[in-house]
User: Fold this.
Amino acid sequence: MNWIDIGHIEDVPVRGARLLKTPVGCIAVFRTAEAEVFAASNTCPHKHGPLVEGIVHGQKVTCPLHNWVFDLNTGEAQGADDGRIDTYPVRLDGDRILIDGNAVGQRSAA
Amino acid sequence: MTKQKLVIIGAGMASGRVIEHLVETAPEAYDITLFNAEPRGNYNRIMLSPVLSGEKTYEEIVTHNGAFYAEHNVTCRFGERVVKIDRDLKVVEGENGHVPYDKLIFGTGSDPFMIPLPGHDLDGVIAYRDLEDTERMMALGPDNTCVVIGGGLLGLEAAAGMAARGVDVTVVHIMGHLMERQLDEAAGYLLKKSLEGKGIKIKLQANSKEILGEDGKVKALLLDDGTELPCDLLVMAVGIRPSVALAKEAGLAVGRGIHVDDQMMTSDENVFAVGECVEHDGALFGLVAPLYDQAKVLAQTLLGESAAFTPKVLSTKLKVTGCDLFSAGDFADGEGREDIVFRDPSRGVYKRLVIEGEKLIGAVMYGDTADGNWFFDKIKSGESIEEMRETLIFGPAYQGGATVDPLSAVAALPRDAEICGCNGICKGTIVDAIAGGATDLGAVRTTTKASGSCGTCTGLVEQLLQVTLGDTFQMPTAQPVCGCTDLSHEDVRRLIKSQELKSQPAVWQELGWTTPNGCHVCRPAVNFYLLADWPLEYQDDPQSRFVNERKHANIQKDGTFSVVPRMWGGITNPNELRAIADAADKYNVPTVKVTGGQRIDLLGVKSEDLPHIWADLNKAGLVSGHAYSKGLRTVKTCVGTDHCRFGTQDSTGLGIKLEKILWGSWTPHKVKLGVSGCPRNCAEATCKDIGVICVDSGYQIGIAGAAGMDVKETELLCQVPTEDECIDVIVAVTQAYRENAKYLDRIYKWVGKVGLDWVKETVVEDIENRRALVERFELSQSVYRKDPWAEHAREKAPSYAPLADLTPLAAE
Ligand code: SRM
Ligand SMILES: Cc1cc2nc3c(=O)[nH]c(=O)nc-3n(C[C@H](O)[C@H](O)[C@H](O)COP(=O)(O)OP(=O)(O)OC[C@H]3O[C@@H](n4cnc5c(N)ncnc54)[C@H](O)[C@@H]3O)c2cc1C
Ligand code: SF4
Ligand code: FES
Assistant:
């Protein structure tokens, strides 16, 4: 893995998200609790709704356009809806949010 | 064999254990010299809290006394700080002289972190770490006040200990709930409630700005919102930093703590470290359990045995009598997780388990922690819980039984909780009536009047019938808010009022929510109910709002936004129009459209441009039109007496006045008004939520119109002679709607439920009540009548931009 620092935990509101631009496209970085983060594709498989604008609840997000709900662990759409968003390895080191650069197409700094 | 010389710096909880292991297994191996900066030997630091609260004495918490050291030939240099180490000569230098060593142990613990606020060095500003600090707090009595900064484990134990002595204590915490590292919000809410029950005042989301003093002594803490909290003593309990200065100076490898390997050896093979001063594999330590493991490994290492330290899962308890909490394991990181939540509002119990795959990986509980260790064992063993998943949360005793009672929230209500708001009927009165033979809804209505007026409390009355009569009463099934609760919207609204629930965690806990923090359906509703009922106490939660209301713009199908500035009553001027045109140019707005609400929509603005376009529009005096809100949208007007040959009153002027009074207020669904200058009704006032038709003799106020999915003409509420009275009635009806309606019911749906007659009674006929409604509306508007665009442009602009941009630069 190639962990890249993308920001401070307080930059993302609890039960909120921020956008991350990467070579593989826009990724939404979610904060589900004081010290819990997830990263997944920002683009809803239904009609491309921006998931970064959704309501975050438990470890799920609801798309702002037509309310599809995705599990942030697996990326799977919940309930009757059928679809999946890509998820990316992300972790906290103290107060910093790190994402796996390899997974988001970022060449290692070395 | 000659004894080796072992020097230990710090007589703390970790080094105490090392000495015990050494003298037990190989008393002849080492000659021990023990330095301690504190003027005493090893004691049980964690028991300082019971000493503070008066449950124990200092003597009872001493772990090693003079006799122990004498028996084992430990040379004690207490009250003496080690000031230097010469690793080449292998000598440590104490304040009173040198001691040579063969092996050296750092057990220097941590230093409390003091926030460098102005005034932090005043007399009376202390940390909570040692006996001296404890004694300073113990010296306070019932006439004293104390402020504790920090709502973590230490701060709360300090606060509870002093409160037990009668001290007036206020805890100031920067985060949204207490002990946020160990507890989730629901448990944090219950903890806050119990501590408040002990008389401790708690201020959350409070930022300290400055410590004020007088003659060199602390006098008060000043918060950045201007609040001044007077105090005789100020305790800072905001965290600890490993005590590494000495090790660093001696040239050892030091990061945040002193680097050690699995054998507790530092970068020098003759120097070891143990306890809170170490950093092992990137981790720091702040609880004793792992330190004891380290102590054992270190003793074995010193005796030439092979041993390795491995960190384990930790559990936390708070040593405050009456606050039963337990948390263990991991709530952060991890893939594929699931929550199991159990709440029993009547007993104040909350339990949450976090499961990953087939394993239990974390547990938080409050109120009933009897099963804490059973869960902790399951976490540590990592055994599969697949078989008992369904009943796991009930603990070992219930394997195979028990379910959550959907009626427990109502059962838990005190007798004096008001059920029927219209008639002021409490639970006790209703329960007595049921016991007296009123065994169905109709009978309860006739005997008590409860649910006889607007009827929104019907669901609760039915639940009381069920709770009191048991299975003999057949509950009609009401529509619950969502899958997180069995209660209906109306039930939740009433219970928020009667139980005075003032935060979302309070609602989740007291009303028995089955999820940790709700979902996209209930959160916006609960957020609205709380801000409508407690405008001053409750702080609006943007994360519980749909994107449009969080970002104050309407999201479009391509993820861009639309921007609609307010045009009061549909009136504009060349300046405003110029500003709109300039903004459209500057931000490349693809579409500019005149809306159906008499104003202009700029469609297709990018998220990161929003704060900037708003700032530009603000400069021309244009503010948010709330085209995105469940709140006041527009007041559509016609030209009225100013220009029209038929106009009877100043309809434009009245529309502007109404819009200026009502704007910014949040409502259950959107609210649109129209004011027409005569019955020709050019402003289409008769299909609005609230519409005014001006006539020669005054103003006809109609409500409950619609022109969306349903089309419906307004119904006449009343006719009033003056403009002032017209405004009062409209404000009062809006407030009644805000206080009573179900989230997402437009006014016409709400009036359909409570009846136009009820609205007439409460708003038109009951003048006293009308006045009270207007006052409550004004109170709420003192918070919400403001331009969110200006606020966001000023304070939140960075949050509209991406967190980071990892796309390669064009030049690369
Ligand atoms: C911009 C506008 C259309 C226009 O170009 O004129 C508009 C646009 C939208 N309307 Fe509307 N409505 C607009 C006037 C109306 C009107 C006419 C009026 O206000 O005089 C109505 C019928 C009157 C009424 O509300 O009863 C109207 C009835 C609706 C409804 C149905 C409401 C209902 O209870 O039946 C919705 C859906 C909803 O709110 O749930 C809706 C929802 C919407 C939303 C917000 C859809 C959404 O949730 O994203 C549209 C946002 C478009 C965008 O991306 O900006 N819009 N909408 C009008 C803005 C007026 C303004 O200045 O604020
Ligand atoms: C009030 C309170 C309550 C707590 N409650 C709990 C609890 O419930 N559960 C839990 O697990 N943990 C609790 N802790 C944390 C726990 O006490 C610490 O983790 C533990 O004491 C750390 O042990 P240590 O040996 O590393 O350091 P310490 O016990 O701090 O000992 C270090 C000693 O080294 C001395 N020293 C430092 N530098 C020098 C020097 N240069 N020369 C000579 N001496 C020096 C210091 O004076 C100190 O006496 C609590 C802590 C406090 C303060
Ligand atoms: S009628 Fe309203 S909601 Fe429907 S497409 Fe037009 S603007 Fe959108
Ligand atoms: S685009 Fe996400 S639910 Fe339709």
